Amino acid sequence: MQHRRLGQTGPSVSALGLGCMGMSGMYGPADRLESIRTIHAALEAGITLLDTGDFYGMGHNEMLIGEALQGRTRDQALISVKFGAMRDPTGAWLGYDARPQAVKSFLAYTLQRLRVDHIDIYRPARLDPNVPIEDTIGAVADMVKAGYVRHIGLSEVGPETIRRAAAVHPICDLQIEYSLISRGPEESILPVCRELGIGITAYGVLSRGLISGHWSNAATGPGDFRTHSPRFQEGNVEKNLALVEGLRRLAETKGVSVAQIAIAWVAAQGDDIVPLIGARRRDRLHEALGALDVTLTEEDLAAIERIVPKGAAAGDRYPTAQMAMLDSERA
Known about the structure:
GO terms for molecular function: oxidoreductase activity. It comes from Microvirga lotononidis. It contains eleven helices and twelve strands. By secondary structure, it is of the alpha/beta class. The protein has one domain: Alpha-Beta Barrel (TIM Barrel). Strands 3-4-5-8-9-10-11-12 form an eight-stranded parallel β-barrel, surrounded by four helices. The protein has a two-stranded antiparallel sheet with strand order 1-2. A two-stranded antiparallel ribbon has the order 6-7. α4 (about 135-145) links the parallel β8 and β9. α3 (about 100-115) packs across α4 (about 135-145), α4 (about 135-145) runs parallel beside α5 and α5 packs parallel to α6 (about 190-195).
């Protein structure tokens, strides 16, 4: 397994991380046993970074990871946790809470659900518009001093917020959506992170399956938030899948899959970027791991740019109301 360091102050992690969100109902029902076996297969393949959020399945995802890690030494997995998103018993989103007292309460429950004594990377899921980022990061820094957190990360925030957070405590990485069809971070977010020595953990590298090469509209069902995502709506999804077919032709010439091309492209954008793969099944995990063996030449990268030029995606990555809440989109 190849490894990359998360920024100047962060840990060395596997060149791919496993995003576990889809194992807790965000894309509809998931198979618990297969999810656990996928986590085990990832660890056995050398993946060390597991990414979760305390609001994935209202704690279900953390408990699932905690169960999967039982019987293994704590240092086999680096656990990255997002906090702050609020949900009601129906699963509806209620906003964000990043007050210092809430941060410490969220962390206490996370430690219990994961059955661990510390979190490797702890990060606010989004910017709370009612709480200065300095207060939120200061509270996490208190937990670093107390030994409950090792490193501090950020998620979906823009350049100004990144600078303000980094002035309070070293930030190891920013987690943000970055893929062939989500290239917004290139404008001002990536340059600021590189200036400050902050790594990137890129989620949505397959745009939630849309550019995986396996997408079918029949794949969504009850509880799958993609049914509300603009890029998956009629009129947009057809245009986006046409881009995928262009990638498929290139992939075939290299003897690899579309998903492997898409993951390898993200990894090729810099050694400071670690793609998170959202595999829920072992077969998808093994396919994604194959991206590590894909070498993209300058000619390949130029061909990909022609097939999927920047801004080619039809539809935003989130519905309008959610886009308006993203500090990263104000960059």
